[in-house]
Q: What sequence folds into this?
């Protein structure tokens, strides 16, 4: 573009719109980052919109320009986390590897992803009863549709890598996540109970979640793929 073209009213308007769009995206990201940090610090309850705004360095009203409710903020975080998890799994099975090596990489990557995003399982546990209750039908439909599309894409990469029939990939992923969530909920003792269970006598009912998850996923997948 020549200097003359760059200085036209149309070019200036386009640049202003681009900058405005970048600014809005940055503010939205700041809000989500602040909400994530606050929730990780106290994941037994959702922080208020005022707390999120303060942590993001914004006015409370500004938060509501981007999200109508605080629940909408945390659904956006949950959607980001699910998308990232599915993308990580997709990358594992899209890379050339033997089935055994792909499975090992999947388990390692899956557990590492959950370690890096401690809010995911806690937010998901709140999804049906809290977060999704304050969404419009259109928002809820989009959230679920994005999840379905991500699952379908990732399931297809799994099927191609392991030579599985159509639909089997999504089934394996859904069951793996159900196993993960169930194990996490079983071992997610409240703080006051953790102290009691620190007695060695209770060791059988307080195994390490990460170790148990690795073992459970490995056993499930090896059995499922050999059936």
A:
């Amino acid at each position: 573009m020549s200097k003359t073209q760059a200085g036209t009213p149309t070019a200036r308007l386009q640049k202003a719109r681009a900058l405005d769009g970048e600014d809005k995206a940055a503010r939205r990201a700041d809000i989500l980052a602040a909400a994530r940090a606050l929730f990780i610090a106290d994941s037994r309850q959702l922080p208020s919109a005022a707390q999120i705004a303060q942590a993001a360095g914004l006015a409370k009203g500004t938060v509501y320009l981007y999200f109508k409710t605080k629940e909408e903020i945390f659904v956006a975080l949950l959607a980001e986390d699910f998308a990232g998890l599915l993308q990580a799994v997709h990358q594992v099975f899209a890379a050339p590897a033997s089935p055994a090596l792909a499975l090992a990489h999947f388990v390692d990557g899956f557990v590492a992803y959950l370690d890096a995003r401690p809010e995911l399982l806690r937010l998901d546990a709140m999804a049906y009863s809290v977060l999704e209750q304050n969404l419009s039908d259109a928002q809820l439909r989009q959230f679920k549709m994005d999840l379905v599309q991500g699952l379908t894409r990732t399931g297809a990469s799994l099927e191609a890598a392991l030579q599985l029939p159509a639909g089997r990939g999504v089934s394996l992923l859904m069951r793996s996540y159900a196993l993960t969530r169930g194990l996490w909920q079983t071992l997610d003792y409240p703080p006051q109970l953790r102290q009691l269970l620190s007695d060695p006598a209770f060791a059988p009912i307080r195994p390490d979640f990460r170790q148990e998850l690795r073992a459970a996923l490995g056993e499930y997948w090896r059995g499922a793929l050999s059936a």
Remarks:
- The CA atoms of residues 114 and 120 lie 7 Å apart.
- The radius of gyration is 22 Å.
